Amino acid sequence: MEIGIIGLGLIGGSLGLDLRSQSHKVIGVSRRAQTIERALERGVIDAGSTEFGALSSADLVVVCTPISLIVPTVKCLRDVVPPGAIITDVGSVKGRVVEPCTTLYPHFVGGHPMAGTAEQGIEAAQRDLFQGAVYAFTPVEETNPKDVEILTGLARSLGSDVMTCAPDIHDQAVAWISHLPVFVSAGLIEACGLDVDPIVLQLAQRLASSGFRDTSRVGGGNPELGMMMAQHNRTALLQSLRSYQQQIAQFIAAIEAKDWVQLQTRLAQAQKLRPDFVD
Ligand code: NAP
């Protein structure tokens, strides 16, 4: 297949490396000419351009730009790609993307590979990023089942475990397991950093070890990611944050009341639930 990739960063670049290794012809489009040059040097693409016109014979285009650019990109692309070509995206939020893109272009299918690293840009692209990862597609009533079938085959060829779900269900689920943890973790770091006693603060900073490293990791990352989550998945994130706030309030109430039985029950319940989410 001739496959176009728009946005040659971590996700787009990694896709290019894997798809080329399977003998697909990969055409890259990115904003900056130097990114195209580097993508060619790294073997991420067969050819590249800063113009969408380069995708005029693509069978399939994967939009790997920041989320806010997905809808405007699909709007431009629909007049460029051959009739019937599939357009998909990799955005981490689906509700605000899938509906307008499906209206703009009938062969659009929303997608989200649950894979990534903390790095960004073309230098972060790596082989086998999608191996063993869940790849979610979010078809709606208007989506062509044949398009989903083709994309499913392609994602499986990357070693991904494919699942389908509705866009709004996807967004609530990622709010729980991906977006809420960023704000919980950021709040933790801030609360610790706000201790008014400089001696305590200094000691806490020296004592912080693996537990704090684990719980602060996602909140101490790139602020743009958290902003993206809040802006593009606002409703689902607020719902998760409010529910989390209630849990914290209940912990506070149990500790204030010295209700150790309730506290023990809840901590045991959390211990039992964790393996349902992660090994
Ligand atoms: P990234 O590494 O920052 O790459 C984004 C690329 O988009 C940049 O390299 C940039 O290319 C290009 N770009 C920016 N503006 C553009 C424009 N106007 N036109 C064309 N290209 C443009 O970001 P990423 O992590 O790959 O994320 C890309 C998408 O994947 C996002 O929608 C994100 O939600 C989704 N996603 C990310 C992860 C993750 O863990 N990072 C996981 C799953 C899904 P230039 O170098 O040319 O400026």
Named once each, the bound ligands are: NADP nicotinamide-adenine-dinucleotide phosphate
Helix content: 40-55%
Which percent range describes the beta-strand content?
5-15%
What does the radius of gyration come to?
A: 22 Å
Mean pLDDT: 96
The number of helical runs is: 11
Oligomeric state of the chains?
single chain
Structural class: alpha/beta
Question: Between the first and last Cα atoms, what is the distance in angstroms?
Answer: 37 Å
Shape: elongated
What's the quick description here?
By secondary structure, this protein is an alpha/beta fold. It has helices spanning 10-21, 33-41, 70-77, 95-104, 145-157, 167-193, 198-207, 210-216, 223-232, 234-256, 260-277; strands at 2-6, 25-29, 47-49, 60-63, 86-89, 108-109, 111-113, 134-137, 161-164.
Report on this structure.
This protein has 279 residues and is α/β, with parallel strands linked by helices. Helices cover 53% and strands 12% of the residues. It has helices at residues 10-21, 33-41, 70-77, 95-104, 145-157, 167-193, 198-207, 210-216, 223-232, 234-256, 260-277, and strands at 2-6, 25-29, 47-49, 60-63, 86-89, 108-109, 111-113, 134-137, 161-164. The strands form 2 sheets. Strands 3-2-1-4-5-6 form a 6-stranded parallel β-sheet, sandwiched between helices. It has a 3-stranded mixed β-sheet with strand order 7-8-9, with helices on one face. The protein binds NADP nicotinamide-adenine-dinucleotide phosphate (NAP). NADP nicotinamide-adenine-dinucleotide phosphate binds at residues 6-12, 30-32, 35, 64-67, 69, 90-92, 112-113, 116, 120-122, 124. NADP nicotinamide-adenine-dinucleotide phosphate binds next to helix 1 and strand 7.
